[in-house]
Specification:
single chain; 133 residues; mainly alpha; two-stranded antiparallel sheet; two-stranded antiparallel ribbon; 4 strands
């Protein structure tokens, strides 16, 4: 029986889930096994965090950019809409003063989604997750 081909929408959802898991699991953990939200003092197990995007995930060129996505609690990511003032401060401290301008410039690049792009993200981050085991 032939395997059903996933739609681009299904691939995008799987790519998002795989990348999100990697973002949250690859972040530093403290002595209690908890990960800190990058925009507030909240410490949670990785499964309770979200992959918060500095530049929105609608900006496809940066959707899976590791410099643009970090663990955030639901309060900061959803209710505070990214908590951008604190996210910007954290980004500058983490990457240097030019990161926000770099991401802003890169965000101007138009990228069209494709089956191959999502398949590559899924493959790359499944491999990275496997390497963490």
């Amino acid at each position: 029986m032939a395997k059903k081909t996933k739609t681009i929408s299904q691939l995008k959802k799987l790519a998002d889930a795989t990348f999100s898991e990697w973002v949250r699991r690859s972040a530093p953990v403290d002595e209690d096994g908890l990960t800190k939200c990058v925009t507030c003092p909240q410490r949670l197990p990785w499964k309770q965090l979200q992959a918060g995007h500095y530049e929105t995930r609608g900006t496809l060129v940066l959707r899976y950019d590791e410099r643009n996505v970090h663990p955030q609690c639901v309060g900061c990511n959803v209710f505070k809409k990214g908590n951008y003032p604190r996210y910007a401060t954290w980004m500058i401290k983490e990457y240097g003063e030019y990161i926000l301008k770099e991401l802003e410039e890169e965000a101007k690049v138009l990228v069209h989604d494709s089956r191959g792009m999502y398949e590559a993200v899924i493959e790359d981050y499944k491999l990275k997750l496997k390497e963490m085991e």
